[in-house]
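Subject: two folds for Thursday's group meeting

Dear M.,

Sorry for the delay on this. The cluster queue was jammed most of the week, so I only got both jobs back this morning. I'm pasting them in the order they finished. Each block is the input sequence followed by the predicted structure tokens. Could you check whether the formatting survives your parser before we put anything on slides? The first protein is the one we discussed after the seminar.
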Amino acid sequence: MFAIHRPLGLRCFRDTISRSYLPRTRLYTILSSSTRLNRSKKVPSLGSGVPGLSQEGLAAERFLSHLESTYDALTLSHPTLWLCVAAIAFSGLNHPEAVPWIYQHAVQKENMDQRLMARKMKDALFKASVLFGIPKALNGMAALQEVLPPELQDEKPLRKNPTSPANLAALHKAGQAFFSQLYGEITPTEQPFLVDSYPDLGGPFYMTTIIYGYVYSFTDYLDAAETSLCIVAALIASGSPKRQYDNHVAGALRNKASRSELEAVQQVVSAVVHRCTSARKAPIERY
């Protein structure tokens, strides 16, 4: 049985990450006074069809249950989000082979919509690709795609084609609205900072229309709060510097995520980081 850990303090959380992952990582704990709450449709076993991973590996069923209980102990909001967060963390740490097992864990639940869950996980990885790179996100998506039955594999984009002038204008407007909501009162200084750093990246087309419009503002499967929490998860997994981390934590709160949800995301990513880095040094613990 797993003990539910108490909320991590600033030094405890930062030291845990620095010992097991990147010494230069600077993370700041979201302190909360959240109350702890107590909270089958089967798919075929993935068996040996997933190269390099057995169910006793990194994504062992008991470890995934531990992540679920850790998340649920802190918040009951967005109850399936921890699955997306775990997929982001494993993919960001170069272990995409764990993603199919996360999906299998999800769809074993009663009344779980398999198509919806697959789309949520893929869209979470797509949004995380902006933070830790397309190759890592793509490998996680591809690993999941390999185990989806044909009827659950999307053949067309879920987002509207952005090439028409009308769609580009709509995306730019949506991107600006999402950016302004996330950055709040620092929007007037943050956008010029991005443009000044490199106009091709921070300019209105790429950053506003594509990143914040096409990628982030699409909320059919992950709402604004979930999107922000996925961004925070990707930043933690990739060892983001303080400026970006602080901005997106504040942005998540503006997007109506709670402090307890932010702490739950930190706990899940921290557990995955610890498990992956420990596995590089010693045999994987059998859960």
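Second protein, same layout:
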Amino acid sequence: MIVYPRGLAQTGGSMENALTWTSKYGSVFASFYGKASSDGLNEAGLAANTLYLAEADYGDYTLSNKPRLSIGAWNQYFLDNFATVAEAVAAMQEPPFVIVAPLLPNGRAASVHLSLSDSTGDSAILEYVDGELKIHHSNDYRVMTNSPVLTSKLQSTNTGSLLVETKCYQVQSMRQTVLFVLTTY
């Protein structure tokens, strides 16, 4: 676990035209390969979580003049800058950056999607599909799994073919109740 204070100067990665910002909120998070923020919570109660998404397609970042953000810093960007899901979703209607997916130590390009939730119970799932950001913002989107993309999961669920077994676990903290769902299919 890593703790970052508010007021920390941040960068979107070691690359040309990297996005820079100063964190508005302190956060605690788990690191992936010691180089990326994968799951975390900020002091305002915003939680950000990333999971593997083989279908992720962030588009060709070289075709844009926007600042660049490594996919490994995507999660941290939200923890640092937003107190609520609504704020984050509003800011991403016109993303201020392009995503760069570097190669991981296993030799594959990073490919994830992101879920956000806050202390009010609001939630959203953000996925890049075919080079475009898709935002699923509603209380209907409270659970995210690894691949496939969310719309595929919802279509499978509606036909009854996705879920074989589901177990729910509830964890109570001082600030909020978190529901973990384990699904096998």
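Two things I noticed about the second structure. Helices lie at 71-81, 85-91, 150-159. Residues 26 and 43 are 6 Å apart (CA to CA).

Cheers,
T.
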